[in-house]
Amino acid sequence: MQFKLLAGAAALSLHTPLLLADDSASLQKLIEQVQKLEARSARQEAEINRLRTELSARPASAPQTQQEPVSSPQTGSFDQSTQTPASIPAADPATVSQSATGPLDAPGLQPLNLPGLGQTGTTTAATAFNPALSVILDGVYYHDDRQGGVSDRLAESLGFGAGTSEGHAHGGELKQGFNLRETELAFSASVDPYLDALAILAVGEEGLEVEEAYGRTRSLPWGLQLKFGRFFSDIGYMNRQHPHQWDFVDQALPYQLLFGGSLRETGLQLSWLPAWPFYARFGVEALQGENNGVASYLGPDEDHPAFSDKAGPRLFTAFAKFSPDLGYSHALQAGVFGGRALKHQEFQPGATDDEALDGDSWFAGTDWVYKYDDPRAFGQGDITLQGEYIYRRKDLRVVDSTDLARLGLGHEAAQDGLYVQGVYGFAPRWTTGLRFDTAGLINQVNETGPGEQSLASIQRYTANLTWNPTEFSRLRLQYNIGRLPLDGSKESFNQVYLQYQFSLGAHGAHAF
Amino acid sequence: MYKLLLAFLLAVFVAPAQAAINVVATTSSMGMLARTVGGDAVKVTVLAPPDRDAHYLQAKPSMMLALRRADLLMAVGADLEIGWLPAALQSAGNPRVLPGKPGYFEAASQVSLIEKGEAADRARGDVHPMGNPHVYLDPQRMATIGKALAQRLSAVDPEQAATFQRNAQAFAGQVAAHLPQWRDKSRGVKGVVLNHKDGNYLMTLLGVPVLGYVEPLPGIPPSAQYLSSLVGRLKGRQGVILYTVFQPAQGPNFLAQRLGWKAFRLPLEPALDADAKAYFALIDQWVNAVAQAR
């Protein structure tokens, strides 16, 4: 038997070279066959991998009501076989990356894989969409006992000027009854290795508006970042928050009255985060200067040739934020900020007609935030306390008036606003908030003609109750009670809000 | 006064200059692995404390500062930290640790994930379409991640490459040594009810059936009605209920009472400064709890 085998083997070995030499066609056939077999085994391997993935995905997709164990020991043993065995040397980079990419994963969809370093990309759902897209829905039922005119009267009676009465106040004016506030569409992605970009479009009653659209550098050294386009300025704390990030339905009075909403401009920002032992961030911004409250620019036109011309950028701001390291449960951030507008132009009601005023303005303020993060789930026990103070000064001159004697007269306005608020997670997924906001603590208008005039102030108290079923939805009930100066005396007003907010699409992360 | 100013300036500008590789880990299990593989060559900062759910943190200035100074960021990934890490990274202004750069290391990208490819539909709760991110409770996957991490650290500090490899191998060896004992303990176990899908990898490794979840859907707290239906389904069977230190106890306790099972409140993450031993002790804790299910 053995002999026969040996003989056969010898014969074969003798014959083989002959075969190679003689019949290259049959060799070709053999090679083809081997290739076919290889292809088949690759297909089978792919099929096995597909089944494996399906099997390991089963505990999740199986309905919870199923009677049998959701995850069986068999699943376990299959899954273990996909593991890189401990005996394979770590030095083999292919092993490391292979364990992450199955043969069915399209190579184009995989994150960048550096040779020998394993995966460097993220395994996030958002990377599947380019750009990441999210939509925010915001609806409010609103009622007040002033026939919806609270905001208008605020601006008029307090002498805060163009602030809220003109133009679009961000998330501001609400009608009595049902309101669909802005629907936000957010797109974000990396443009290339050097830039990230974000565009947020707000669809409101006035149509589509570019709320924010900016690019931001990714790879500047030394903790520097350059941001350019249209964006919410980084001054203050609340300023750069979108309405869906606010802890209350409406914005605090200092912002409403001094900036006419938030300070949102087109321009550029340079910020610096030094690698110091404590957190500090500094920034300067050069902005076009179009904000109603601090940098209103109307420019000369046919009706009002008296307004002077001034090219942008007309508004320059600076901010600094500091935060000591207080451990994992506490966070405190304090900031100072200021800005100067080279041009501020507005109309003020005069004796018979509106007067045109032209000049400049500046503002300064401070913002404080403290957060306590409780270990309990769903925000229970969490506390946020925050407060901001803003002071604004306008130095204007009458440039057009029906009363010619008033031409050239000075008009200086010094006004301020303040809010403090606290939010407490009193139960899982439930928060309650209290806020006090006021404007006009200082409210002095100094005119060359009539002399100094001290205007009234407004105070408001707010309480709300918020239910967050998940991170993606929110229902909120809010009640404001305030005192508004009207014709020399003060009258109280009441505002009620019922709000819903939903977020669809990519999971957004909010900055501190 | 002058001296004070000088001291301040020194502290400010000299302090960051350190030889060690600055590793920022999002969770303490990632910190443990970085410390185990990196040894003395790394200085580890952990962003999320172990007593908190890493799903639901907020980006804080202290995180941004840590990331600003990081040479390597070690994240769990697969969307676990999506609510806060991107925001913190964005503000940190440190190009070295952005996704796609060698300084960005994501554990979930180094291993195969279970529950991959689920429908990206939030009606099914806080799902992770890229797969279950809780890989850190699977020692075997952690060993694989450790080896990949050794590669990555070697790129940052080539001189120590051999040390990193050795450390990663040693960790893998320890895992392999522990594994039979963990499997022995959990052999013949009837099954467990988890609060969240955070224990799935470990149960798969141990071959222990997951009979259900306290959460009706990931990230959604249970209603009384759902819990009652769960009780109805599991009545008469045997098992244990496992939940973590930061998860609410009401649901698990309710189930435990109605089913007559034991409920165990377990840490999901080792201590902040944990080493491999502390991590294995954590797995021991889970295995011992699982072993009660008979």
TrEMBL record, chain A:
InterPro entries: Porin_dom_sf. The keyword Signal applies. Residues 54-117 are annotated as: Disordered. Residues 1-21 form the signal peptide. Residues 20-54 form a coiled coil. Residues 106-117 have a biased composition (Low complexity). Keywords: Coiled coil, Signal. It comes from the Bacteria. Residues 62-86 have a biased composition (Polar residues). This is Zinc-regulated TonB-dependent outer membrane receptor. It comes from Thermithiobacillus plumbiphilus. The lineage of its organism: Bacteria, Pseudomonadati, Pseudomonadota, Acidithiobacillia, Acidithiobacillales.
TrEMBL record, chain B:
Gene3D superfamilies: Nitrogenase molybdenum iron protein domain. Pfam families: ZnuA. The keyword Transcription does not apply. Transmembrane segments: none annotated. Keywords: Signal. Residues 1-19 form the signal peptide. InterPro entries: Bact_metal-bind_prot9, ZnuA-like. It comes from the Bacteria. This is Zinc ABC transporter substrate-binding protein.
